[in-house]
Design brief:
The protein is mostly helical and 180 residues long. It contains nine helices and no strands. α1 runs antiparallel to α9 and α3 runs antiparallel to α9. It is globular and about 40 Å long.
């Protein structure tokens, strides 16, 4: 991987938790600052930065339409929604919560599904930064990150915003990387 993996996962997680374009642009600049002569990483960051909308509310509107629309969002950000049972706060939530608690992390709100894509990515970044055992990293990826391919498929089908297409390309890349 061209950069340590954790910052990529942290950026992807943050991008699925916030619609603050300025914050995301700042994180991309931090990533750019960590690159050491890697054209592929630079190109990925440039594509993400160029795709960030200049209109302040554009990202928020598309995020709401894709993920939070009360009349029917086309894509769900929760792992549980992509399982056979499709039950919010179900087994994927319980499993993620066990992982978090074993690492000493408690969700900010008790009613927040622990299997939210952004939270899972942020937690994985934390595991990477902590130097977790490679077997544990591999297990967490299998249990909680592989489904992100389905999320990427959904978002790519439904988004009107280039930023989310680029973000889904990043997710696909992260999920496909075997060595961390």
């Amino acid at each position: 991987m061209p950069l340590p993996a954790a910052p990529w996962y942290a950026f992807a997680g943050t991008a699925l938790l916030t619609t603050d374009s300025q914050q995301l642009a700042g994180l991309l600049e931090q990533l750019r600052g960590e690159i050491v002569e890697d054209e592929a990483a630079e190109a990925r960051i440039r594509r993400l930065a160029d795709a960030l909308p200049s209109e302040a509310l554009a990202l928020e509107k598309e995020y709401t339409r894709l993920f939070l629309n009360p009349t029917g969002s086309p894509c769900a950000l929760w792992q549980s929604a992509y399982s056979e049972m499709s039950q919010l706060m179900g087994p994927a939530h319980d499993s993620a919560l066990e992982w978090y608690r074993a690492a000493g992390v408690e969700p900010a709100r008790s009613n927040e599904p622990a299997d939210h894509a952004g939270l899972l990515l942020m937690f994985f970044a934390r595991l990477l930064d902590s130097g977790a055992d490679p077997n544990e990293l591999s297990r967490f990826r299998r249990e909680h990150l592989v489904w992100l391919e389905k999320l990427a498929d959904c978002v790519e089908r439904h988004t009107a915003l280039p930023f989310y297409r680029e973000l889904m390309a990043l997710l696909r890349w992260l999920v496909s990387v075997e060595e961390i």
